[in-house]
Amino acid sequence: MNDSLKTLLIIAFLIVILWNLGAGLYYMLVDKGESKRTVNALTRRIALSVALILLVVLANYMGWIKFHGGP
Which strand (E) or helix (H) includes residue 39? Predict the structure, then answer.
């Protein structure tokens, strides 16, 4: 997998996470607590965030990416 594809995958994850965060805010303002759409959007955001973290850790372990910086 080339570097630009890896970067694009991570950026796509971040965009979807931000989209769900915005959807949660929108549903919170529009529904006024009458539905579970806010909870569902925020649950998806958390699940995607955890999946992204696990994907980055797995990619580092497999050698697909290398962490840099620090002593």
Answer: helix 37-62
